[in-house]
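Summary of Year 1 activities. Much of the first year was spent building the evaluation harness for sequence design. The harness presents a backbone, in tokenized form, and records the residue chosen at every position. We chose the following record to illustrate the format because it has been used consistently in internal testing since the harness was completed.
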């Protein structure tokens, strides 16, 4: 007989102007209950390990988000929103459209590109340079980033991941 245990963790971090970002992880573990040698302490240790795995994954994702927020060149609308100068997201978006008719890729798109490229073990910048002739992924437009996301998702994921 097997015992199925699910553990999970989520964490949300507040941002200026009532924004937030977060991450969550859910792990399901199957344990063999036929083994009479297993004790309550061993069960607790396995559950603790599963929680530790979830916690590490969540903290890693949050750290990645913080990294992107600090290093990505923000469009003027994003810069206003993060600095707290814009009164609303709508105002920030309007300002961005007026000052930059070709909108830059969003922070979420750039994060997705990084994650997908890492999972597929491909050179993201190399793909972007070949396809769009740019020197930095921050130079991608929203449409270019969307197209690149679709292309990278179509790549096979290596089996050793």
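For this record, the design step produced the sequence shown next.
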């Amino acid at each position: 007989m097997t015992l199925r245990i699910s553990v999970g963790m989520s964490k949300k971090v507040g941002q200026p102007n009532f924004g937030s970002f977060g991450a969550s992880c859910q792990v399901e573990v199957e344990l063999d209950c036929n083994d009479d040698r297993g004790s309550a302490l061993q069960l607790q240790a396995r559950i603790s390990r599963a929680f530790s795995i979830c916690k590490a994954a969540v903290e890693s994702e949050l750290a990645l988000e913080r990294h992107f927020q600090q290093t990505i060149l923000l469009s003027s609308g994003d810069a206003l929103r993060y600095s707290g100068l814009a009164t609303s997201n709508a105002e920030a978006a309007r300002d961005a459209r007026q000052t930059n008719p070709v909108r830059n890729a969003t922070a979420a798109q750039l994060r997705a590109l990084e994650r997908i490229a890492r999972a597929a073990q491909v050179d993201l910048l190399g793909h972007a340079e070949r396809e769009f002739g740019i020197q930095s992924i921050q130079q991608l437009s929203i449409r270019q980033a969307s197209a690149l996301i679709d292309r990278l998702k179509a790549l096979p994921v290596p089996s050793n991941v």
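Confidence is low (pLDDT under 50) at residues 73-87. Quantitative recovery figures across the full test set are reported in Table 2.
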